[in-house]
Amino acid sequence: MRELLIGQREQMDAAGQQITCAYYVLVRDVLPPVSCESYGIGITALESGEREEVLDITVRPERIQTLAERLLRGGVTPCALRDVVEDWL
Question: CA 87, 57, 23, 13 torsion: positive or negative?
Answer without folding.
Answer: positive
